[in-house]
Specification:
29% strand; alpha+beta; seven-stranded mixed β-sheet; two-stranded antiparallel sheet
Length: 191
């Protein structure tokens, strides 16, 4: 929880409003995960195509519309996204069956930092963790993300690291600030 890396066990998403996303997940909304068009770079338009379901995403307004339609844009081409979602879903399901504990989170916001002034290795740590599940109705349907019956929380490991290594006191976040629909994302990000 202190050193995020983009691996086959992660899905990078593009979201214009983290607060609205968290609120919708808290209210038991589920979101389809859509890929970007094959062969397009990071700054490309997104195009989700899966069994005749598609959405084009480019500008901030289009991303807002997509969020309203309960769709998330993944910054991965279709083949990579499908493989990652399949593997993450299987691993999550097995973990829950074997241990009874959820270990799958949607991270909202990241803190970029260096361990020291002399370090040249940039680290990324998630700020807010939303406990989720990834499911799909059938092999031919889109994967859906939804929050499980656990509360969204801040990354307490990061808070402790900032306190012990950098003398930054964010103890007010140890009890996650809330609003009318779960965590108060805007307030957390402002602190």
């Amino acid at each position: 929880l202190l050193n995020y890396r983009d691996t086959k066990g992660t899905i990078p998403l593009v979201c214009p409003d983290l607060g609205k996303l968290e609120d919708a997940l808290f209210e038991k909304g589920s979101f389809s995960v859509l890929p970007r068009a094959s062969g397009q770079g990071e700054k490309s338009q997104f195009l989700g195509k899966f069994n005749n379901q598609s959405v084009g995403i480019g500008s901030s307004d289009e991303l807002q519309t997509t969020l309203k339609k309960k769709q998330l844009a993944a910054n991965l081409p279709p083949g990579d996204l499908y493989k990652r979602l399949t593997e993450i879903s299987r691993t999550w399901r097995t973990s829950v069956e074997e241990t009874g504990a959820n270990n799958l989170f949607l991270s909202l916001g990241f803190l970029h930092f260096y361990e020291s002034e002399s370090s040249d290795r940039l680290r990324m740590a998630p700020l807010i963790l939303v406990p989720i599940e990834i499911t799909r109705a059938s092999v031919s349907s889109l994967f859906k993300v939804r929050q499980i019956d656990e509360e969204t929380r801040v990354n307490t490991t990061l808070i402790e690291k900032l306190r012990s290594d950098f003398d930054i006191d964010l103890s007010e976040l140890m009890d996650t600030p809330t609003d009318h629909a779960g965590a108060d994302v805007q307030r957390i990000l402002e602190i």
